[in-house]
């Protein structure tokens, strides 16, 4: 097996994307769920996300190839102001259990060895939690919320929450530093371009929530208080188009305010996966991004 850096090319981005699709498709099957279909637009978005991380963290992105040169696994990690995050770790189903994942994880951990803090959103594969715990991460079970938004039950957001944009970068970074010890920095530039952003900022505190442009998923949320977090999540869910099923992933037990919002909105709750932390307590109020954490 050979480990090589992910190159800043469309070909390598597509290689990583197809590896992820194959690995996560297998994970869905293990849980008895249908794989998530990917449109051309979503595939292009995924490639852009992969290349964004490669350009900012080339030493944290790796592809594993077998003796024939076939790509069998990939990993991406990034460092933002001393906070290391594992954005992706995938291995083809046919070669799982052969040490590919461990080798990729080790390479990304070496990239972040100088960081005091680390975050991972654990994949659905049964072996993932074991590997991350052995790497020194604390495992925090999570809830996934999904369904059509019941706007009447959700009620209105208490206080002002408005559409955000590039002008809000200082606010976003400030909230990040308070919650997770390091700002997302350039990742906010990518998120603002590709997502809807809701922000709140007044005497009660500051907060933000990203929602995918199609309204199908909450991508990242941070706030300085539960009150503000409730406000921006409520406002974001009100912005979900009628008839669109929305998903809120990686909600830890510390985020009971988010559970309350989800219940009011009529979303279905189920236990699923872990968010893994090293060197910090679970941020709250906070809902991490799987890729940008």
UniProtKB/TrEMBL annotation:
<dbReference type="InterPro" id="IPR016181">
    <property type="entry name" value="Acyl_CoA_acyltransferase"/>
</dbReference>
<dbReference type="InterPro" id="IPR000182">
    <property type="entry name" value="GNAT_dom"/>
</dbReference>
<feature type="domain" description="N-acetyltransferase">
    <location>
        <begin position="14"/>
        <end position="155"/>
    </location>
</feature>
<dbReference type="Pfam" id="PF13508">
    <property type="entry name" value="Acetyltransf_7"/>
</dbReference>
<dbReference type="GO" id="GO:0016747">
    <property type="term" value="F:acyltransferase activity, transferring groups other than amino-acyl groups"/>
</dbReference>
<protein>
    <submittedName>
        <fullName>Acetyltransferase (GNAT) domain-containing protein</fullName>
    </submittedName>
</protein>
<keyword id="KW-0808">Transferase</keyword>
<keyword id="KW-0012">Acyltransferase</keyword>
């Amino acid at each position: 097996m050979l480990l090589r850096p992910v190159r800043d090319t469309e070909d390598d981005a597509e290689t990583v994307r197809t590896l992820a699709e194959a690995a996560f498709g297998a994970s869905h099957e293990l849980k008895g769920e249908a794989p998530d279909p990917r449109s051309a637009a979503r595939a292009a978005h995924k490639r852009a996300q992969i290349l964004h991380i490669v350009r900012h963290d080339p030493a944290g992105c790796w592809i594993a190839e077998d003796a024939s040169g076939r790509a069998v696994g990939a990993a991406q990690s990034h460092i933002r102001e001393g906070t290391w995050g594992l954005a992706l770790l995938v291995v083809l189903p046919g070669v799982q259990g052969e040490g590919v994942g461990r080798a990729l994880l080790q390479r990304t951990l070496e990239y972040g060895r100088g960081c005091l803090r680390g975050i991972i959103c654990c994949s659905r594969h049964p072996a993932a939690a074991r590997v991350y715990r052995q790497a020194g991460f604390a495992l925090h079970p999570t809830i996934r919320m999904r369904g059509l938004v019941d706007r009447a039950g959700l009620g209105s957001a208490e206080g002002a929450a408005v559409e955000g944009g590039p002008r809000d970068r200082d606010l976003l970074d400030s909230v990040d530093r308070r919650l997770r010890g390091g700002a997302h920095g350039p990742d906010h530039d990518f998120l603002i371009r590709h997502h809807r952003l809701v922000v709140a900022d007044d005497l009660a505190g500051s907060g933000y929530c990203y929602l995918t442009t199609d309204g199908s998923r909450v991508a990242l949320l941070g706030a300085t208080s539960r009150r503000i977090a409730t406000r921006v999540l409520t406002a974001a869910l009100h912005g979900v188009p009628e008839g669109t099923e929305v998903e809120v992933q990686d909600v830890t037990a510390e985020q009971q305010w988010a559970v309350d919002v989800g219940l009011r909105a009529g979303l279905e709750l189920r236990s699923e996966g872990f968010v893994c932390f090293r060197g910090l307590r679970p941020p709250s109020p906070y809902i991490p991004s799987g890729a940008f954490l």
